[in-house]
TrEMBL record, chain A:
This is RalA-binding protein 1 isoform X1. Residues 164-361 form the Rho-GAP domain. InterPro entries: RALBP1, RalBP1-like_Ral-bd, Rho_GTPase_activation_prot, RhoGAP_dom. The gene is LOC107225382. Residues 20-57, 89-139 have a biased composition (Basic and acidic residues).
UniProtKB/TrEMBL annotation, chain B:
This is small monomeric GTPase. The keyword Membrane applies. One of its GO terms (biological process) is signal transduction. SUPFAM superfamilies: P-loop containing nucleoside triphosphate hydrolases. Residues 179-201 are annotated as: Disordered. It is found in: Cell membrane. Belongs to the small GTPase superfamily. Ras family. SMART domains: RAB (SM00175), RAN (SM00176), RAS (SM00173), RHO (SM00174). PROSITE patterns: RAB, RAS, RHO.
């Protein structure tokens, strides 16, 4: 921003003679948000000038309640206004570069401030001495002083949300769900949408000033605001106040406004719409968002015309000055709003969870969304702290938000793992089909017989309990004699069932183990395979050019062997299963009578079944993961064996060569 | 803020610092959940709270696990400022990480502006003795120079994991008691200072 004044003075020497002293002074605190708008106005030509006059009308109204604000934001512009119209030709060129420059400066200053903040800590006393010396930097020093006595610093005064450029307001008072609106705007719109649509003369009737000012202060200080204690008029007035205090029009600047006005004055509807769409697409993102939300919100208002007594006309009358656009333009925007903001939908803002809230979201998407909000909140806290607003409360908040993020991350991981594993096992089931499933169970039985045993036990554990419950209910509902003859039966059934199954299962496991032992003694397999493959290899050794091909072949051979052994095992197991199934049907037949006789309360059964099903699901999952590892291990084994063979082969070659020599 | 610990329950804020990959997170997770995480995933920042019994008194410990990488240095100061005690971790298998502790120490002292901040020098990965690059004497010398305790830990075997956290909490606690008595007995303090001044005069 500083670069302007020398530049201007070159062209018009002496123009700022009286001003230059003051100007350089001003640059000392030019990082102040209020300062920028005034300079902007300086560059915008006559048209803007007129607008500003209009503006000031409202601003002075404002002034009654906030004289300080008025002086800060408006008075510099007043003093410069008289000169601005002298160089309208330059405004266009400068506008963009100045804007960029402004942003860069902003970040530079942030850095600077941080640095200074650190220095400040070290050499506090020296700094204070400096302060006495350099009175020109009074304001900067004041801020630093504020930074130092943390508890007394007021972020609301130093970095307000009202009365600063829109982009800055968005950054300072962020919505954490990704919508680039200042929180205050979002809250107001939410509140009015929810409770305002029945209010007669909404937006026309203004609220008690003190209430609005109170809320303004709360937002500036980043306090949590509970609007529910106010009526909707307070929300509308607050929103109007925010829009009015924006240093620039919602449509970026006077130039753009005039283009919008031209487009709105087009007679042909379709053309008007496309032009407006085009112009809106050129707006900065935050302006676009704000415009979209406000216009769509006002459009909702017209839908409630009966209760609010506000139609598009009266809305335009009331709000076009606030939005710094003509009656006609606002009407056009309202008319075309569906097409103009087709991809925008108003949604109620759900703030990030408060720390210590017991109910973290459960699904992956919900956790991810919440995580994003918390991260946004965290970065905002960091930003505030880096800017020097360090309070005990904010520090505590920092740790708490951080803790919540950690919790969410951990939960996300566990949910991911859980969903991932079920997903995978599902996939596997689908892929392998029935045969695969058989295969899987076989693998498991062989490799982890212990687990299988526990599976059996676990499977039957709930049953005795159920029977006990059953007995109790029986004793309640039946005669003693009945009860007596009933229980032995039940016991018998119980005893018989697990015992027989257990025996058969363990037997089959043993069988399987034997079978696998016969088949799968690794050395044997290796020997056998190596014997075969060595022969093949010797026969073809000459024709084999590359090691790679050799390796592939070996692996192929291994895989074939594996397939064979697995196939035979599958066949074996099928026989076993058939046998067991027959056994079971026999048992069922025997059992069918005792089961029918006692009056089994369904509830007990159901509980038992549910437990069993759950148990089973758990075990299935375990099984699936084990099978996966087995498969992986097998593949690794195959690779290793192939390598081993290659090694062997080359060794043999060496030996042969050595012998020859 | 809504869920503040009971007024009687003390809260100690511990911060883990050290280069990337030395095992800050591993130590933290081992202490918090008795789990050892094998795969390495750089931390940005994580915070945990746990209620523990410290010398028959129930206290809460807040652990902030910071990033070892320089990328996150910008936000580190904000955390350092609010820490009450620091575990400065390096890996005994990596000399660079040991050298880096010097810088971390300086950074902490600068932010906290306090030479006697509760602080422990922690040599992690003591289970990997065969890969040791930082010898015990070297580490002990540095800790003596700083006037802080030195402990070797293994997040994998859980060796000394509880010890470092509890030792640090004890230091924080005694430090808090000291501060309290100092602020309560300000009169005495002043008297002392005056005495000193007299001596100087």
């Amino acid at each position: 921003m500083d670069f302007e004044s020398p530049d201007v003075e070159k062209d018009f020497p002496g123009l700022y003679a009286s001003e230059s002293g003051r100007k350089s002074n001003e640059s000392d605190f030019s990082d102040d948000g209020h300062d920028r708008p005034s300079k902007k106005e300086l560059l915008i030509g006559k048209r803007k000038d007129k607008k500003d006059k209009k503006d000031r009308g409202y601003a002075t109204l404002e002034g009654e309640s906030s004289p300080e604000e008025d002086i800060e934001t408006k008075s510099p512009s007043k003093s410069k206004k008289s000169k601005t119209f002298k160089f309208p030709s330059k405004k266009e060129k400068r506008e963009k570069s100045r804007e960029k420059d402004g942003k860069e400066k902003e970040t530079d200053k942030e850095r600077e401030r941080k640095k200074k903040d650190k220095d400040d800590k070290d050499t506090d006393k020296e700094k204070r001495k400096d302060k006495d010396k350099e009175k020109s930097k009074q304001k900067l020093k004041d801020r630093k002083k504020g930074k130092h006595w943390e508890e007394t610093v007021d972020i609301g005064e130093e970095q307000p949300i009202f009365g600063v450029a829109l982009q800055m307001a968005v950054e300072r008072g962020r919505c954490h769900d990704g919508v680039e609106l200042p929180l205050v705007v979002r809250n107001c719109i939410d509140y009015i949408e929810e409770y305002g649509m029945t209010v007669d003369g909404l937006y026309k009737v203004s609220a008690v000033k003190s209430k609005v000012q109170h809320l303004r202060k709360l937002y500036n200080q980043r306090e949590v605001v509970d609007m529910s204690e106010f009526d909707p008029m307070v929300a509308t007035s607050l929103l109007i106040l925010f829009l009015r205090e924006l240093p620039e029009p919602i449509l970026e600047n006077g130039e753009v406004v005039s283009r919008f006005e031209q487009a709105a004055s087009l007679k042909e509807v379709a053309l008007r719409e496309t032009q407006l769409i085009d112009l809106i697409s050129q707006l900065p993102k935050c302006n676009k968002t704000l415009l979209a939300w406000v216009i769509l919100h006002l459009d909702h208002l017209t839908a409630h015309e009966k209760t609010t007594k506000m139609n598009a006309q009266s809305i335009a009358m009331t709000l076009s000055p606030v939005l710094q656009m003509s009656h006609r333009l606002l009407l056009a925007l309202l008319l075309h709003c569906k097409a103009l903001f087709a991809n925008v939908e108003l949604s109620k803002y759900i703030p990030p969870l408060a720390s210590g809230s017991p109910n973290l979201p459960d699904t992956m998407d919900a956790i991810a969304a919440e995580l994003a909000k918390q991260e946004s909140l965290l970065s905002q806290i960091h930003m505030q702290m880096n800017a020097g607003f360090v309070t005990k409360l904010r520090e505590e908040q920092l740790w708490e938000v951080q803790r919540l993020i950690t919790q969410l991350k951990r939960k996300y991981k566990t949910v991911q793992k859980l969903e991932g594993s079920t997903h995978k096992s599902l996939e596997e089931d689908l892929k392998l089909g029935d045969e695969g499933n058989l295969d899987i169970s076989l693998h498991k039985a062989k490799i982890v017989p212990e687990e299988d045993n526990s599976y059996i036990k676990a499977d039957y554990q709930p049953l005795p309990m159920a029977v006990v419950a059953h007995k109790e209910s029986c004793s309640q509902s039946m005669d003693e004699s009945n009860d007596q003859c009933d229980t032995p039966e039940v016991n018998e059934k119980l005893g018989m069932l697990p015992a027989s199954k257990h025996v058969s299962q363990t037997k089959c496991i043993q069988e399987k183990l034997d079978a696998s032992a016969n088949e799968l003694t690794p050395d044997e397999v290796v020997n056998r395979n190596s014997g075969e493959t060595l022969q093949i290899l010797k026969a073809r050794q000459i024709s084999l050019d590359s090691d790679e091909e050799l390796r592939e072949r070996l692996i192929y051979g291994e895989l074939l062997a594996m397939q064979e052994s697995l196939g035979s095992r599958i066949a074996e197991e099928r026989g076993e299963i058939k046998r067991l199934a027959e056994l079971l049907t026999n048992k069922d037949f025997e059992r069918s009578k005792p089961i029918a006789v006692p009056c089994t309360p369904e509830e007990v059964d159901r509980v038992a079944i549910i437990e069993l099903v759950l148990e089973n699901q758990m075990l299935e999952k375990k099984k699936a993961t084990l099978v996966r590892t087995i498969i992986e291990e097998n593949i690794a084994c195959v690779e290793l064996r192939a390598q081993f063979l290659i090694q062997q082969l080359s060794d043999q070659d060496c030996m042969l060569a050595a012998k020859k020599i | 803020m809504s869920k503040k610990p009971g007024a009687t329950q003390a809260l100690h804020k511990v911060i883990m610092v050290g280069s990337g990959g030395v095992g800050k997170s591993a130590l933290t997770l081992q202490f918090m959940y008795d789990e050892f995480v094998e795969d390495y995933e750089p931390t940005k920042a994580d915070s945990y709270r746990k209620t523990v019994v410290l010398d028959a008194e129930e206290v809460q410990i807040d652990i902030l696990d910071t990033a070892g990488q320089e990328d996150y240095a910008a936000i580190r100061d904000n955390y350092f400022r609010s820490g009450e005690g620091f575990l400065c971790v390096f890996s005994i298998t990596e000399d660079d990480s040991f050298q880096a502790t010097q810088e971390f120490r300086e950074q902490i002292l600068r932010v906290k502006n306090d030479d006697h901040i509760p602080f422990l020098l922690v040599g992690n990965k003591s289970d990997l003795q065969e890969k040791r690059k930082v010898n015990l004497a070297e580490a002990q010398a540095r800790s003596q120079q700083w006037g802080v305790p030195y402990v070797e830990t293994s997040a994998k075997t859980r060796e000394n994991v509880d010890k470092v956290f509890f030792d640090l909490m004890r230091e924080i606690r005694s430090r808090k008691i000291e501060d309290k008595s100092a602020s309560n007995g300000r009169g005495k303090d002043r008297a002392k200072r005056k005495k000193k001044m007299c001596i100087i005069l």
